[in-house]
Every structure is written in structure tokens, then in C-alpha cells.
Specification:
- The chain is of the alpha+beta class and 154 residues long.
- The protein has a single domain (20-109, 117-141), classed as Roll (Sulfate adenylyltransferase).
- The chain has helices at 4-10, 32-43, 52-62, 75-84, 107-113; strands at residues 47-49, 86-88, 94-96, 118-122, 128-133, 139-141.
- The strands form two sheets. It has a four-stranded mixed beta sheet, sandwiched between helices.
- Pfam families: PUA_2.
Length: 154
């Protein structure tokens, strides 16, 4: 008699990886099947051009390296990060976040955005990168960050 069937029911296999901050990994990439629709929606939105460094932060956020952030920090997240070096997430737990990740805009961008609830962020080359909204959970990465897209380590 084999002991494998008996062990199979009583063994729990766990990953050696730790859970991401906030409990679930953030993935903001829009599925290929929805990209055309999102691109047409973005055509109607006010646009803000990202600097190269902002594009790098989009990469960090979109791949979950800044979990639980789902976009650039809002004012309350910024203040928590600045004053407490951490963020309090919805379940009440605290996540280390000592570096504020924000998108600075100028008066011209602010005027262009006006009362719009959604904004299209475009890269330095003018290509659509991200759609963000005033709702905390609305941030959709339009295209995956590609290695060698003039990302510079200097």
C-alpha cells in the first residue's frame, strides 16, 4: 500500500515568496483585447506629457514594485509617506513607503485637465502610456514597459 494518497490530502504546499505589500500584487497592464477601446477613450481625454523620470515611476508602479499603490500617490498617501514613512492600507495594516511617488504637474497642465475626472498620460514621444482617474483605483497601463525603450541607468 502506497502512502502517497494519504500524504496528498494532508500536505500543504506553500511558496517561499512573501506576500506583496497590501496583500495582492498590483498589475495595471490593460489586456491586449481592450487596448484599442482604451486608446479611443484616451483620445477624448486631456493629456499630460510625462518626463522620462515619470515614465520610470510608471514602470515601478505598474509592475507592482510599489504595491499597494495603483497609481501616483494622492495627497493623503503623499502626506503619510512624507510624515510617517509608511502608508496605512484599507485593512488597517501599515506598509513601508518612505519615498513619495508623485506626479508633479504645472499650472498649464492643471488648466488643461480642468474638471475632467480622467487624464491620459503620454510619454516623452507622445505615445499613450497610462489613463488615470480621480477614483483611487483607476489607473490603467496602456502598454507594457519594454526593456530598452530608452530607459537610461545614468
Amino acid at each position: 500500500m502506497s502512502s502517497v494518497p494519504l500524504c496528498k490530502d494532508s500536505v500543504t504546499i506553500k511558496s517561499s515568496l512573501i506576500d506583496p505589500d497590501g496583500g495582492s500584487l498590483v498589475d495595471l497592464v490593460v489586456p491586449e483585447s481592450k487596448r484599442e477601446l482604451k486608446a479611443s477613450e484616451a483620445e477624448l481625454l486631456p493629456k499630460v506629457k510625462l518626463a522620462k523620470i515619470d515614465l520610470e515611476w510608471v514602470h515601478v508602479i505598474s509592475e507592482g514594485w510599489a504595491s499597494p499603490l495603483k497609481g501616483f500617490m494622492r495627497e493623503d498617501e503623499y502626506l503619510q509617506s512624507l510624515h510617517f514613512n509608511s502608508l496605512r492600507v484599507k485593512d488597517g495594516s501599515v506598509v513601508n513607503m518612505s519615498l513619495p511617488i508623485v506626479l508633479a504637474i504645472d499650472d498649464e497642465d492643471k488648466e488643461r485637465i480642468g474638471v475632467s475626472t480622467d487624464v491620459a498620460l503620454v510619454g516623452p514621444d507622445g505615445d499613450l502610456v497610462l489613463i488615470i482617474g480621480k477614483s483611487e483605483s483607476v489607473a490603467e497601463l496602456f502598454q507594457e514597459y519594454k526593456e530598452g525603450n530608452d530607459a537610461d541607468a545614468s
